[in-house]
Amino acid sequence: MIPFRKMHGLGNDFVVVDDRQKTLGVTPARAAAAADRHRGIGCDQFIVLEQPGGEGADVFMRIYNPDGSEAEACGNATRCIAHLMMEEAGRESVVVRTVRGDLPCQRLPDGTVSADMGPPSLEWQDVPLASAMDTTHLPMTVGAVADPAACSMGNPHVTFFVGDLDRLDWQALGPEAEHHPLLPARANIGFAQVIDTDHIRLAIWERGAGPTLACGSGACATLVNAHRRGLTGRRARIDLPGGTLTLEWRLDGHVLMAGPVATAFTGEFDWDALAA
Ligand SMILES: N[C@@H](CCC[C@H](N)C(=O)O)C(=O)O
């Protein structure tokens, strides 16, 4: 049997397994089976802890979407895994390694966990987009929304700025936007309503996962894109369906994100039962 921990950040939920001993036999298909909300345990991302493979980090975090694709970044899982590692090490700060790089994290005095998600990539090749263009204004229309901005937080993000989120059926627009021909690696799609220069409401359609209650890297990308469009300053509170994240795009280029993390329950499963 494989022990797991069900964690979440603002309801963006994860099944976390510890494969630091390399015994679990994780494959993309098995990760997808475990993430399935009907036949598996159910989660937005299946997270695998591995040995960091070198100095400078406490753990390596591998991220699978429910469709079996591997993601380069996951902000909320970074904060959850940082919490786990801080408990394990008895420290108040750790470094989580991902395919994107090393992400320093710390526990804040109010008990929330912050992650330094590194600098965004702003060039069209790095998002990636299908051809050369200004990443602050993409020639992209999906239903009633148009003219989004894009950037990468290691994973690709597109942000549509909308007038009233409550009057937009954004879940109906997500699939077409995620698979738009301008997006060769697909993308996470944000629908953002700027309330004030330091306050954004955000809903996210996640690549490989669909609508989620929150997306940490999506919140980072939204602040970056909103600031580049002149809509906000470099700090904002971002309200998502599952709760609030605090964001700062520092002058050194790094994006800092803070918010709550929680463990919902723990349990055990085996791959054969999931596949049945
Ligand atoms: N929930 C995440 C993002 C997870 C990965 C994403 N679906 C992708 O494919 O890039 C977050 O909190 O950032």
UniProtKB/TrEMBL annotation:
Keywords: Amino-acid biosynthesis, Cytoplasm, Isomerase, Lysine biosynthesis
Superkingdom field: Bacteria
Organism: Pseudoroseomonas ludipueritiae
InterPro entries for this protein: DAP_epimerase_AS, DAP_epimerase_DapF
Membrane-spanning parts: none
PANTHER family associated with the record: DIAMINOPIMELATE EPIMERASE, DIAMINOPIMELATE EPIMERASE, CHLOROPLASTIC
Protein name per the record: Diaminopimelate epimerase
GO molecular function, one term: diaminopimelate epimerase activity
Transmembrane helix as UniProt keyword: no
